[in-house]
């Protein structure tokens, strides 16, 4: 299985950009391989992300390990603060 992070390369929100950056930095610093899927490159990415997350209004970033839903940024942040960052990714 591999980590998949759905993100948006086009956003006016500084907060969203920071959230996405934190996730990518965490993965990069631990040399965890992942696939980044930019949902702004076509409608299929956003639809796929929302379907996999089970939420028709889900916003990026959304994180998966294969087909297993790991969570959104809030869940990631809570796991990292609790010292369970790697467990969040279901590694």
UniProtKB/TrEMBL annotation:
PROSITE patterns linked: GLUTAREDOXIN_2
UniProt cross-references to CDD domains, sorted A to Z: GRX_SH3BGR (cd03030)
Highest rank taxon of the organism: Eukaryota
Gene Ontology CC: cytoplasm
Similarity-based family: Belongs to the SH3BGR family.
Protein name from the UniProt record: SH3 domain-binding glutamic acid-rich-like protein 3
Biological source species: Esox lucius (Northern pike)
């Amino acid at each position: 299985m591999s980590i998949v992070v759905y993100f948006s390369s086009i956003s006016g929100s500084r907060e969203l950009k920071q959230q996405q950056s934190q996730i990518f930095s965490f993965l990069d610093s631990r040399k965890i391989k992942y696939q980044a899927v930019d949902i702004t490159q076509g409608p299929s990415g956003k639809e796929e992300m929302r379907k996999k997350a089970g939420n028709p209004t889900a916003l990026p970033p959304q994180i998966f390990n294969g087909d297993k839903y790991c969570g959104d940024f809030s869940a990631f942040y809570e796991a990292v603060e609790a010292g369970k960052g790697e467990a969040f990714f279901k590694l």
